[in-house]
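Encode chain A's predicted structure.
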Amino acid sequence: MNEPTVFIVDDDQAVARSLRWLIESVRLRVENFGSAQAFIDGYDAARPGCLVLDVRMPGMSGLELQERLAAQRIHIPIIFITGHGDVQMAVRAVQAGAFDFVEKPFNDQDLLDRIQRAITRDAEWRDRDLQQARLRALFATLTPRETEVLELVVEGLSNKAVANALGLSAKTVEVHRAKVMEKMHARSLSDLVKMAMQRQG
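Encoded structure for chain A:
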């Protein structure tokens, strides 16, 4: 996994430099962008980390950048930096999926704590997405008949009941069930049920 990066998007260069110095003081990688568009042009969604974002900027605002990222299904945790007059706006941003917001003037340690939590959340999201992708790849190896058997087995049907439902012999169902367990790398029926639930979730 790549080292997490804190991406700062703020048009005020003095603020951006100050934020960079603070975050680098705890040995985190930092990249600065002077505008929302510059961030869009330069960001690779495969890179882990979090986004520290000013609400008000010329051109594309922080809220508009949040909307653009959501439309592209980019789920990097966003911490908004806001002035006092922007708190209501920031609350709306959190309701729209932002990770957090911090009011100016902010406490340095408080901001660093929030950044660390955001980076942890990003790692959890990425791990979940990776597990989901692996699960989809395993399900894709099943034949249509094996998928039917799987769906009925996880509903709690016995081999005999599955056989009756699909018009097969119990022996054939046993063979299909064994293949499903093998392909899904499931050690038990409970493993299989959990995988099916994760797939639906």
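The mean pLDDT is 90.
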